[in-house]
Automatic annotation (TrEMBL), chains A, B:
Domain of life: Bacteria
Organism whose genome encodes this protein: Heliobacterium mobile
BP terms from Gene Ontology: tyrosine biosynthetic process
Family affiliation: Belongs to the prephenate/arogenate dehydrogenase family.
InterPro entries referenced in this protein's UniProt entry, alphabetically: 6-PGluconate_DH-like_C_sf, ACT-like_dom_sf, ACT_dom, NAD(P)-bd_dom_sf, PDH_C, PDH_N, Preph/Arog_dehydrog, Prephen_DH
Enzyme class: oxidoreductase
Pathway, per record: Amino-acid biosynthesis; L-tyrosine biosynthesis; (4-hydroxyphenyl)pyruvate from prephenate (NAD(+) route): step 1/1
Entries under SUPFAM superfamilies matching the protein: 6-phosphogluconate dehydrogenase C-terminal domain-like (SSF48179), ACT-like (SSF55021), NAD(P)-binding Rossmann-fold domains (SSF51735)
Protein name per the record: Prephenate dehydrogenase
Keyword Aminoacyl-tRNA synthetase: no
GO molecular function, one term: prephenate dehydrogenase (NADP+) activity
Domain Prephenate/arogenate dehydrogenase: 11-299
Domain ACT: 310-379
């Protein structure tokens, strides 16, 4: 008998859950015309109407089973612990040959569940895009969120090869970089790069909260370093409980590894004294090693731009100053590849970073802006 | 005898070390015309020439002793362990009545050293601005870096009151929010909000480095969460060794508190199972508490703007598109308060966040942009 999966390309996609990831996928598929039709389901009415007004989907359904009817691909983009009830609601509506995929943060548990729950004739491909945003839900959704993001697929030996290829093709079209890993490999790696940092950030916040009982001004002193290090601790507790439940053993193992690294560091700090050079070399080595490893991790991608060339301008805070600069650059034929306001003092001035694709553009920008901006600095 | 300190306002400032903080202070003082003259010293020739070309200082000196001659205020902006040798080099050149301050990360050790080393007639005021930047050194310096930043001063009972007031006045003029703490209070608070996060980030990076020996693709999966959580681990090892040396006891105490928070979290994770609701409530409570505490920490300030109103536009990636939008908004009399390119797909399109001071401006921006931009979304 012929394999029924993905003999034709995927034309109709149903997305269950129009949050950050589901919404971003929908926008990319709809606005990028990657498939013919995208149908969205969400429990939240506001998400549905926003999905329509922002061209995240072609149409919405208020009934999950109807949303998936005649879909070639169903994307589950809700917390992993909701999957069993979703499958229960949709399984009789899936026509044979439908591919189901997900975007959940843990994969071994998900693969096991789907194997048990999905009916014969439906192919499941586990997936996990490594992308996020500070803005949660569909309001944070962005057509370009997955651009250049690593998108992990976790087939096992039972996964239908044509289904893997079909999901891979869709995610490549969306701009993601697909990486195949086994479910267990995925779970152990994300335990380190995602789940451990979350729990560590939570413990840091809890420590501050404890200290703030005696030192009430301590939170005021939290500058960018503390805020960055603990940003993920503001994540959705329900999602993180799901992650802890479904990836417990790799997470506990990883916390053990972290504790050993911290112990080593603590003993090096304990050996340092302020009046000599006794054991500082060892601490210095660890800090230098960590810096080198950290610097080797690819930077936060906007999807942008190999080797952008930057200038920083200091300008007065007056109405129209950004528009004026953009006009000056436009008239000189210089294209702005990136722009960001770094800091502003109201009614005084601010600093703006502008990026260009080419070094010569940056150099020419310095020339043409020097006349009007107070100070231009090439970075 | 009359107190000689700061009877007149500070007119001449010498800055020893033109790095991120020294450079930013110099720019604010020079460009903001807060004092009459700013003299800069740095060992690095490139820093000196950049300081001159970016109006960070009025003039530079290649000899530290000459730099401080006739200064009303000397700002030490180098790693704390260099202070003793700096004081040795400048002390005979300081005229009586000069105020010396610093921007170092630890204060008890610094206060003790300065008390021992500075000659009679020189007032020391310990200081520590809570501000940083990803760009290091004078290239990261920004006239508005300290705008709205908390600036801690750590007087003790020996500190000359007029000197405290004089340094406070300067830092307020620079835009910082001055907070007085005892040296020990400062050291214990920064151990939690700054030194602990650094060491934790280092331990996280070391853990990833260990895991990457078996799972070579793990660093590829590090998305924004890991990068944010470990950003500070890329900091200068020499500065952090200095911090560990001079704030060892508060840091070790704080690591102990952190370890207890992590232990508690680990036991809650251990009690969670994927098939039930047994002990998940306790983990959920901790995660929710941490989220609430984290959300209550004031956001990263650009110096900007209470309650900015935002829209996100999805636009084609074509030359001049930013300039064109800025022109459209300018012609409609709408002022851009903030702008940032969120993501770009080269030769396809991108998403741009634009902020406005007033809600009506954001609403009108949606109207006028809807005609030209593909999609406008009000946040």
């Amino acid at each position: 008998m012929k394999q029924p999966f993905a003999l034709s390309p995927i034309k109709r996609v149903a997305i269950i859950g129009l949050g950050l990831i589901g919404g971003s996928l929908g926008m990319a598929l709809t606005q990028g015309r990657i498939v013919e039709e995208v149908i969205g389901f969400d429990q939240d009415e506001e998400a549905l109407s926003l999905a329509l007004s922002t061209q995240t989907v072609h149409r919405v359904e208020r009934n999950m089973a109807e949303a998936v009817q005649n879909a070639d691909l169903v994307i589950m983009a809700t917390p992993v612990c909701t999957y069993p009830s979703i499958v229960a609601a949709i399984k009789t509506s899936l026509r044979p040959g439908t591919i189901v995929t997900d975007v959940g943060s843990t994969k071994s548990w998900v693969m096991d569940q789907m194997k048990r729950l999905l009916p014969e004739g439906i192919a499941f491909v586990g997936g996990h895009p490594m992308a996020g945003s500070e803005k949660k839900g569909i309001r944070g959704a962005d057509r370009y969120l997955l651009e250049n993001a690593v998108y992990v697929l976790t087939p096992d030996r039972d996964t239908v090869p044509e289904a893997i290829d079909a999901v891979k093709a869709i995610m490549c079209a969306v701009g993601a970089r697909v990486l195949k890993l086994s479910p267990l490999e995925h779970d152990q790696m994300v335990a380190v790069v995602s789940h451990l940092p979350h729990m560590v950030a939570v413990a840091l916040v809890e420590t501050l909260s404890e200290v703030a009982k005696s030192y009430t001004q301590a939170p005021m002193l939290a500058a960018g370093g503390f805020r960055d290090t603990t940003r993920v601790a503001a994540g959705d507790p329900r999602m993180w409980v799901d992650i802890a439940k479904t990836n417990r053993e790799p997470l506990l193992h990883t916390i053990g590894l972290f504790r050993r690294a911290l112990d080593r560091l603590e003993s090096e700090i304990g050996g340092c004294s302020s009046d000599g050079t006794d054991q500082v070399a060892s601490l210095q080595n660890t800090l230098s090693h960590a810096r080198d490893v950290r610097l080797a991790i690819p930077g936060k991608a906007k999807g942008v731009l190999p080797g952008i060339h930057e200038v920083v301008v200091t300008v007065p805070d007056k109405p129209g100053v950004i528009g004026n600069m953009a006009r000056i650059l436009g008239e000189a034929g210089i294209n702005i590849a990136d722009i960001e306001i770094l800091r502003v003092r109201e009614r005084d001035g601010g600093t703006i970073r502008i990026g260009f694709y080419e070094a010569e553009e940056a150099d020419r920008a310095v020339e043409v802006l020097a006349a009007s901006a107070v100070i231009v600095k090439r970075l």
